[in-house]
Structure formats: C-alpha cells, structure tokens
Amino acid sequence: MAMIDVMNVLWILAHPEPRSLNGYLAAEGQRALRVGDHHVEVSDLYAMGWNPVVDAAGYAHHPAERFQVAAAAKQAYESGALSADIRAEQEKIRRADTIVVQFPMWWFGMPAILKGWFDRVWHQGFAYGLRGPDGEWIGYGDGFLAGKRAMAVVTMGGPAWLYSERGIHGAVDELLFPLQHGTLFYAGAQVLPPVLISGADRFTPEEGEAAAKELRERLLAIPTTEPIAYRTQNGGDYDQNLVLRPDAAPGLTGLRAHVA
Fold first, then answer.
1. What span, in angstroms and rounded, lies between the C-alpha atoms of 233 and 140?
2. What is the DSSP string of 78-113?
3. Smallest Cα–Cα separation from 159: which of 197, 211, 107?
4. Are 150 and 101 in contact (CB under 8 A)?
5. Which of 188, 104, 111, 100 has its CA nearest to residue 151?
6. Which residues are tagged catalytic?
7. Rounded to whole angstroms, how far apart are CA atoms 180 and 171?
8. pLDDT of residue 37
9. What's the CA gap between 254 and 251, in Å, rounded?
10. What value does the mean pLDDT take over residues 10-30?
11. Which of 47, 140, 159, 186 is the Cys-Cys partner for 233 at CB 3.0 to 4.6 Å?
C-alpha cells in the first residue's frame, strides 16, 4: 500500500452546542485524523465568538468615507490593516492543505455565522479578483486554494428522501452548489463529494456511531478520493463571456451542466 502524505487540515465548525450530534462528529473526526498522524487546526466559530458581520472596522476603513466593501477589504489586505481575527483565519487557510467545512443545514443553507466567516475572510484581493501569471482573471478551478482539497460535512434534520432528485426540499447537491462550486471550487480547491448525514434530528446513539464511522472513513480517504468533476473556467468549456459553449453538455441547462 502506498504511503499517504500527512495532511494539514483546517476544520471549520459552525454549531452552537458541543454536546450535539455535530459536536460529537467533529470530535470523532478530528480524533481519527490525529490518530492517523494528520495535523488538525480548528476554527470553532461559535466557541470563538466569531463576528459574522462585515463592517468598516474589520477593514480599517474611516467611517467618514463611503464604505465600498470590496475595495476597502482589498486595500486593507494589501496594506496589512485587516483586523486581527480576519488575518488569523487567513493564516490558518495558508497553513492547510485540506479544508473541512462542517455545519447543520438550516433553511437550505449554512448558519449565518459560517456565511459571515466567508463574507469577512474571503474578500477581494485574497479570495477573488485575482489574476494569473499572464494577467488573466482566474477562478473556478484556479485560485488561492489551488492544490488544496475541501470537503463539506453536513447534517440535515429531515430524511434523505426529502433531499432527493424529486424530494420536496430539492436535490442536496444543488442546495450545496453555492458552497461547493461557487465558493470552494471558485477559489481553486479540489472539492470532494460531501459527507451527508440526514435524519439527524431523530438519531439514536447507534445511528450516531454509524455516522461517525462513515465520517472517519471518508476523512482518512481524502488523499485518494476523486473530486467532483466541475468544469474549469479556463479549460475550454466556456466562451469569452463564461457561458458554456454549445458543444459542452448540449441540451443540458441548470447547475448540472457545470459538472463534466
């Protein structure tokens, strides 16, 4: 068996209760990684008291001037004036080669505290608005996460069939598209299929242990797991307006068209 390289994992957790199923899964997953000699750094957003609100103070912007968020963030980043909490999270991202994003699905998306983490940390100049060596705009398969892997771990209160192709909640891969494609893949990460735990509101201890076992197995398999085959921005499938060419996924529209 080939030797698996040691991973440097950044685990971002967004759940307010450490005694919850999410808390249990996070502890078990992190323990499995450390037992496997992988390095784990944790951003437990609720425990940190993370501020999810984009404001002028985070980007050292003078309140007397109009607050243009993207421009202010880029200027603060380039001048070293970002607030300490934002800088600390960006340093964690730089140290990691693997990112795990864990959260309960609330109202078909991530909790506000996690959305606010992305809003404040993944700003212009750091996470987007970047150019490649030839001056071209980069994104969707190339970016500041290039060479890193990312995986979502998501609990859902309802049973799996509600999130199926014809389930009333909608297909779960489409619900996660903004995170997996529009955020992680846009930033250049190789996005692995998510770990999905459905029916979490009614779990028995035995079901919790089964979910933990699946999570441990998925985490340790990260180095050899095939990523989701999203189409890259500059791979030839899109025209100059970043619209799919007629010969790419002909007749297919919607989110699925962007998966090769």
1. 5
2. HHT-S-HHHHHHHHHHHH-SEEEEEEE-BTTB--HH
3. 197
4. yes
5. 100
6. 157, 163, 169
7. 14
8. 94
9. 10
10. 94
11. 140
Strand-strand pairing, 39-44 and 149-155: unpaired
The two structure tokens encoding residue 115: 């959305």
d(CA 260, CA 258): 6
Radius of gyration of the chain (CA): 19
Q: What is the pLDDT of residues 173-209, one digit of tens each?
A: 999 999 999 999 999 999 999 999 988 888 888 888 8
pLDDT classification of 4: cutoffs 50, 70, 90: low
Distance (Å, whole) CA 206 – CA 204: 5
Question: Measured at the alpha carbon of residue 151, what is the angle toward residues 150 and 152, in degrees to the nearest 5?
Answer: 135
